[in-house]
Amino acid sequence: MKTIVEVKNLVKKFHIGTGFFTALNGVNITFSEGEFAGLVGPSGSGKTTLLNIVGSLDVPSEGEVVVLGKSVGKLSPKEAAQLRKTELGFIFQSYNLLPVYTVFENVEFPLLLMNMTADERKQRVMETLEWVGLTDKVKSRPSQLSGGECQRVAIARAMVKRPVLVLADEPTANLDSANSHNILQTMEKLNKELRTSFIFATHDEKVIGYLHRIILMKDGKVVSDENIANPPFSGETKVLK
Fold this sequence. Notes:
By secondary structure, the protein is of the alpha/beta class. The chain has helices at residues 47-54, 77-87, 103-108, 118-131, 147-159, 177-194, 205-208; strands spanning 3-16, 19-32, 36-40, 62-67, 70-71, 88-92, 165-169, 197-202, 213-218, 221-227.
């Protein structure tokens, strides 16, 4: 399997007053193409900080993080933005949808930054909305959608540019159990059919039940790393309407 993320002796410190807080302390880990993996641990364990650095939203204090052959700490702001624009997708618990835009427009938005014609964008958006079961909501605005539907729009927006890697930070935190399972089945389906890699940051037991690899973090360190042969909830991967 091709390595797409390599974390080497990663340390991340944040200044607090006259001192600093060490959020990550000597993390070493790699991720391969096609993984469905999760950084698991309580609040303050460092999982979101690690996800942000992998996503080039932050940089290491010490050590190195190489994402798709690029050392995150050595990228210029423009280069980091280009990596995010073309290769990475992001899904957050707060959805971050544009409220005045329709579902179609929210999903299309990342493609406006790419060299695509209007017809190409329309085809890509509709295909992606079909994956997440929202073709009947193209003209709706976020205020007209349920929480589960908003998160499926966020997934479509992350997937529409066909990223190599999707980073998901507590993607089910604002959802009930039924919607959480629908969302996770959708992401697992995309992982299997498109071989898109997913890395989660979570402490949600529902998410953990779908993971094929669980990296347990505590106090800024990796304390265990386990591959799961048959995740409890894995298998039913159809997109539920």
